[in-house]
Amino acid sequence: MTSPGTHVDAELGELIDDTLPPDDAERVRAHVASCLACRRLHDEMREALAGIRALPTYDPPAGVWAGVERELDARSRSSRRSWPRVAAVAALVAGGALAASAALGTYRSSWSLERVAGSPVAGARAIASSGTLVEGEWLETDASSRARLSIGTLGSADVGPGSRVKLVQAGGAERALRVERGTIDARVWAPPRFFLVETPAATAIDLGCIYTLDVDDRGNGVLLVRSGQVELRGYGLRSLVVAGTAAEMRAGAGPGTPYDSTETRAFRTSLSAIDFGEETGRRLAFERLLAASSRRSTITLWHLLPRVRTDERALVFDRLAALAGVPDGVDRDDVLRLDDRSLSRWRRALEPSWSSERVRLWKRAWRAVWSAGRGA
Amino acid sequence: MIEPSRVLVAPEPRGTVKEPDRHTIERCRRGDRDALRLLFDTHGARVYSIARHFFEGDDARARDVTQDVFVKVMERIGTFEGASRFSTWLYRLTVNACLDAKRAERRLLLLPDPPDLPSAVDDAPQSHALDRAETQTRVARAISQLTPVLRAAILLRYFEGLSYDEMSEALDCPPGTVASRLRRAHEALAHALAALRSEGPGRP
């Protein structure tokens, strides 16, 4: 039994929860009434629990269901292969030609397509001036051809010469292209994460922006962001590429570390060696990168923290600290053991200096566009 | 002055979500996507919201967890025997998916969405009262300071309003363990909230 003078921290939650036996509840209540410390704790706790009950319930974003279906498709592709035809036959028997068409996958949405130069080919069709690219089809351009894909009212993707691009998802909750090789210049005013570009090395997830994606024949590529932000994902890695920065990517290795596009050649070569190079040259590349780093390198150094080995991490920390300072609440030991909170806090402090544009202006403009859209 | 804990914050179930009937579960066992879609439509908001609050409002991770959970529902529905409620089984999948995702984070760079970008799916009015938003932010940050296991327990108890017995099933642990986890979570939450209050408003 707790004496009246003993603090009752451990029982306060149950008192608020109404799960204490009546005698204990009376005792704890009496103590709280006479103890300022416990009373404060009690009030804080009650507010916290009430706050949790009042947290909002969110509907899952529309793209989540599409993701579930894609994942299920991917896991059972071979076993499902015969089912659409069976379903189509059943539908035809029932007289539902449209349903049969849908089951066979012949009823598919498309994007409009405009020839900019040369002779682009959509599916097997040469595009003279304009046409459509149907979901599942490839768009191919030769060395002298260019084309522009319209992403509805949400933007456009200019496809450069020597490209092979597939329209993976034309409608619904997400829009997705796959770039096997070539160049995409995307201008997108869609909600974040609505427009995706898959490559053999990584998926570029648009966060509302303008960017160029180059992919070579081996599936390796470079992303350069001109406005806004793009998240690159692949092989368990994520990179945030903001206006004025770029990131390489490699098939089989995923996205590399982002860097300021004005970095020196020596810096970029060293970074590429760290991200994708052989183990033997890594240490030298690492030392060269640190030596070549400057204030514009903080986006690279921050991204490197979780990517490098423990002994290297301390050196990256020290260089980043020397260039940008360590904000309040960020502890060296916490960063070295990759504490989420410290890493995030440091990122938030550094982020305003990463983008080459006025991020606040960009965000304001972006918000204005979407607020107007929703208000309409 | 309010008398201590005469004003109770005892949990209540969050809304009434109809449990799926046996027919829907059976269809799901046969691989019927429409049946899974039905489960997603009725329970998706629960799963996504728990995950989003678990990950401090991070939409990307909440999406990943929600997707993962419903893929697992399809794959593992054969192991759901119907002895417990479907929702309790789903909570277990959700909590495990959150904890797995948290463990996997070591391999990832953590890049939450730009915090002040409007979400395309957030249809809440623009005129949210600031104080309400601040309270939500503070509570969310306090929750994020709990260990993942305590965070899951506190969300199931107060956000979803589960009983100790239901939590025991969802968390796959004895009721005594549920009680002790909640006790630890209560204290940690109160201290975290007090510390955040002393930092004052205006922090991101």
How would you describe this protein?
Chain A is an alpha+beta fold. Chain A is 41% helix and 25% strand. Chain A contains 13 helices and 18 strands. Chain A has helices at 9-17, 22-34, 36-53, 63-80, 83-93, 97-104, 265-276, 282-292, 298-304, 310-324, 332-336, 340-350, 359-375; strands at residues 110-117, 121-122, 125-126, 130-134, 138-140, 146-150, 155-159, 164-169, 175-188, 195-198, 203-206, 210-215, 221-227, 229-234, 237-242, 245-250, 254-255, 259-260. Chain A has an 18-stranded mixed beta sheet that branches. In chain A, strand 6 and strand 7 (155-159) form a beta hairpin. In chain A, helix 9 packs antiparallel against helix 10. The radius of gyration of chain A is 28 Å and the shape is flat. Helix content of chain B is 62%, strand content 0%. Chain B has eight helices and no strands. Chain B is globular, with a radius of gyration of 18 Å. Classes of the chains: A alpha+beta (376), B mainly alpha (204). At the A-B interface, helix 1, helix 2, helix 3, helix 4 and strand 15 of A face helix 2, helix 3, helix 5, helix 6 and helix 8 of B.
